[in-house]
Amino acid sequence: MSNLPYIVGNWKMNGLRAMLTEARAIDRSAARYPKAQVALAPPTTLIFRLRDACAVIGVGGQDCHSEESGAYTGDVSAAMLKDAGSDFTIVGHSERRAIHGETDSTVKAKAEAALAAGLGVIVCVGETEDERDAGKALKIVSKQLDGSLPKGEGVAERLTVAYEPVWAIGTGRVPSIEDIAAMHQSIRKTLDKIYTDAGSDIRILYGGSVKADNASEILAVSEVGGALVGGASLSAESFLAIVGAACAEIDD
Length: 252
Ligand code: 13P
Known about the structure:
- This protein has 252 residues and is α/β, with parallel strands linked by helices.
- The mean pLDDT is 96.
- It has a single domain, classed as Aldolase class I (TIM Barrel, Alpha-Beta Barrel), CATH 3.20.20.
- The protein has an eight-stranded parallel barrel with strand order 1-2-3-4-5-6-7-8, surrounded by seven helices.
- Bound molecules: 1,3-dihydroxyacetonephosphate (13P).
């Protein structure tokens, strides 16, 4: 498992072929930032093309089905993502949990399927605004981790956790640095408990309104091992500014 900062762009349901220009620009510049690990999760329709167009960055899916194949119209299996050239997939994004009713156990089954197909997996967790206001954020996230994370030998090496407070996604709002630090410490504790020694190497990404102007501060927080970036990953210029901030952080 790499210990470089991991900067992942989640394009969500955005991107036609014209977006390959941005991906190529990101890939070309990523070669100049060897101190960060950079990846993009485009819509499924572009995975194969991105793989073809990019030499340096990782390419991954945004979700997968828990079954390998079968009568699941419209779904995509982890084996298909792998076959299309993916290195990893995101599972359990709050948009999947909220819009598609995915539970912790669904997310865990998907993460297990991803690992079985030979992919790395980024498992997303995060509290809603009501849960934070009620002072339950740490408890909710710890419960999500317990229920969503795949267990077993060799899992930790291919696992990344992304903490994305639901209320910070696409809103321009971010938690205080103290709150990010407290959450990431708490997630680390849970990972240590589940994976013992191997837990300490699992990177914990922060996601939710990460932009060029707040990336340095967020990436400097202890236990923040990178960022999962939505809107700002849609242009090479804004995404590369975040990658640059991650590298500058190491140089300091
Ligand atoms: P934004 O960066 O647009 O807030 O999205 C975050 C996110 O959901 C990434 O998975």
